[in-house]
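Dear H.,

Thanks for agreeing to be a second pair of eyes. The structure we're designing against is below in token form, covering all 202 positions.
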């Protein structure tokens, strides 16, 4: 499964929102599974969107055929767009399904790791971080995915509410980081918390 992550700065909220709703047209596309996203809590005006595709080949086919027609409705409403593609590696909580309808909040972590530590990082995600996140109240599901570069990873988690996610906090995270030797693995990490915009969910 392919995970696509788009981040952009919106300059025309009304135009962007109107155009984003047109992406409902994805529903007829072969290989399309789900799309959703919303507004960054940390950076006003920044939007994060995530979509799931059955395979890279079906995604590439969509990009070659239908993408530009759907994207045209949002032209000029945003800037500084970055698009990254990742391949699914494993669930963060067992039974992952690519759907957004029951989530109020998304958490994204984007990590670049030292090349020789990539497999250790993935192993620690599976053995240390995943059980801790899966046991957090309000955490619905999540996915761990890897870029083609192999030293770049995405963790996307879906939550019932901000209040629930707040319980997964600093002291616990520091303890887990020590156990997972995170400091030795990571070259750079960025993240964000995203308030879902339900009308954009496809």
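And this is the sequence the design step returned. I haven't edited it by hand at all.
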């Amino acid at each position: 499964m392919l995970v696509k992550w788009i981040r952009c700065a919106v300059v025309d909220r009304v135009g962007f929102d109107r155009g984003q709703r047109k992406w409902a047209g994805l529903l007829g596309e072969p290989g399309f599974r789900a799309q959703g996203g919303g507004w960054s809590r940390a950076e006003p005006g920044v939007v994060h969107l995530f979509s799931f595709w059955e395979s890279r080949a079906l995604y590439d086919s969509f990009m070659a055929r239908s993408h530009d027609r759907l994207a045209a409705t949002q032209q000029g409403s945003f800037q500084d767009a970055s698009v990254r593609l990742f391949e699914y590696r494993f669930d963060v909580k067992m039974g992952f399904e690519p759907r957004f309808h029951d989530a109020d909040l998304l958490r994204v972590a984007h990590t670049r790791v030292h090349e020789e530590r990539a497999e250790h990082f993935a192993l620690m995600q599976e053995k240390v971080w995943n059980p801790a996140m899966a046991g957090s109240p309000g955490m619905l599901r999540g996915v761990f995915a890897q870029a083609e570069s192999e030293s770049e990873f995405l963790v996307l988690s879906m939550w019932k509410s901000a209040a629930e996610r707040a319980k997964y906090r600093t002291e616990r995270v520091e303890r887990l980081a020590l156990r997972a030797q995170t400091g030795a693995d990571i070259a750079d990490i960025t993240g964000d918390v995203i308030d879902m915009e339900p009308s954009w969910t496809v």
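Two observations from my side: The first helix runs from residue 13 to 21. The chain has one domain: 2-200.

Warmly,
E.
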